[in-house]
Specification:
This protein is of the alpha/beta class and 213 residues long. It has a single domain, classed as P-loop containing nucleotide triphosphate hydrolases (Rossmann fold, 3-Layer(aba) Sandwich), CATH 3.40.50.300. 39% of the residues lie in helices and 19% in strands. The strands form two sheets. Strands 2-5-1-6-7 form a five-stranded parallel β-sheet, sandwiched between helices. The N and C termini lie close together (9 Å).
Length: 213
């Protein structure tokens, strides 16, 4: 049975001793536990010493609401075409290539309360030898998502109990301001549609991680 210690060993091996920077992707359906796993990996790998692992979520590449309104996609926020996938792929390529200088690479973050991206919110120092990134569409075989996948050394797929996944999604929407009925409606209409797109990409993963581990 796969354990969290197994994941730590595998993540450390990705960084290796080559002097470059490795990129690990964590994919999965909305609410599957990607962020929780990524944050735990980064925390445990860094320990109490000099941080050498950085966390760069894909969520920072959400298009802003004003642009979603212009495109007529606001009611589908979270779908693949509501992200700047090309920008995300370009950042991953930059993180892989810019490893010899002294400059910090800044990635955008995502403010859950505002539900808006925040430019320059996530610093990746030159000392980072491993970058952990997570998002729904890392294994999607279309558009700029293919370029994003090509920049990653490995992609793991999070798999969790379906009822628990939906429960967590509803709770998350409620936590950030949606009334219960509105949260349920959004999950069943939007999040589930996106989950149906993500589920088949499991077959492209380097490793399937059954959560919790």
């Amino acid at each position: 049975m796969l354990t969290f210690d197994d994941l730590l060993v595998r993540a450390r091996a990705l960084a290796g001793d080559g002097g470059g920077r490795a990129l690990l992707g964590i994919a999965g359906s909305p609410g599957s536990g990607k962020t929780t796993l990524a944050e735990r990996l980064v925390r445990e790998l860094n320990g109490a010493g000099e941080p050498w692992v950085a966390h760069v979520p894909m969520d920072g590449f959400h298009l802003a609401d004003v642009e979603l309104d212009r495109l007529g996609r606001r009611d589908r926020k979270g779908a693949p075409d509501t992200f700047d996938a090309a920008g995300y792929a370009a950042l991953l390529r930059r993180l892989r290539e810019e490893t010899d200088g002294e400059d910090v690479v800044y990635a955008p973050g995502f403010e859950r309360v505002l539900e808006q991206p925040l430019a320059g919110a996530v610093p990746v120092p030159p000392t980072a030898r491993l970058v952990v990134t997570e998002g729904n569409y890392l294994l999607l075989g279309a558009g700029a998502w293919v370029r994003a996948r090509a920049a990653l050394d490995e992609v793991w797929f999070c798999e969790s109990d379906e009822d628990e996944r939906v429960r967590r999604l509803v709770a998350r929407h409620e936590e950030f301001g949606k009334p219960h009925e509105e949260a349920v409606a959004w999950v069943l209409r939007s999040d589930q549609r996106n989950a149906e797109l993500v589920a088949p990409t499991r077959e492209r993963a380097d490793l399937v991680v059954p959560l919790p581990v």
